[in-house]
Here is the input.
Amino acid sequence: EVQLLESGGGLVQPGGSLRLSCAASGFTFSGYAMAWVRQAPGKGLEWVSTISGTGSDTYYSDSVRGRFTISRDNSKDTLYLQMNSLRAEDTALYYCAKLLSYRDKYGDYRYYFDYWGQGTLVTVSS
Amino acid sequence: EIVMTQSPATLSVSPGERVTLSCRASQSVNGNLAWYQQKPGQAPRLLIFGSSTRAPGIPARFSGGGSVTEFTLTISSLQSEDFAVYYCQQYNDWPLYTFGQGTKLEIK
Here is the structure.
């Protein structure tokens, strides 16, 4: 059974830093790209960042690029999100999600979120 | 960025009814569309990928359709456990995935 367990959230002042972790189990962690998706209180879902299975490729939304860093430790089956220069608008529930690939009708590989963790809450406030 | 628009924002329906949720993309997503269900206090759960393929373990009452920019999620006979918020998401524009704002299904 796939399990994703986030941790590391909490209350931080504007300009501060936090490091989120996501412990994975139930699948071969290194074989899958992983992502962080957030949800502000009472709002919809927003993709934040994605990392390839090897960790060699990383991607960020414009809203966090230059402030957040995604990484992974495949020896520990753990995904991370280092968040610096936090702003009030970063307040959200942060989910880690596993990506699954398949070939679409054009023969291209596509990746969608097949499993999500329960999330960890980050609150940025003075 | 591909903008995803869902309608309506809220739908009041009775158990047993058939309901169709809509999702529109600002440009073609080549069928690379997923639907997720989210209940209060829970993580999103994948229902549909590839616009019409049910994820493992998803009941047959859930079906996805559409193409190009217009997509639907149909629940053939609403069960009590189906009242939740539903999100569509395009994954055609890698890695800039975008979600709709959600449709809340509430009990009438």
In short: Chain A touches chain B at residues 35, 44-47, 50, 59, 61, 95, 102, 104-106, 110-119 (CB under 8 Å). Chain A has a mean pLDDT of 96. The first strand of chain A starts at residue 3 and ends at 7.
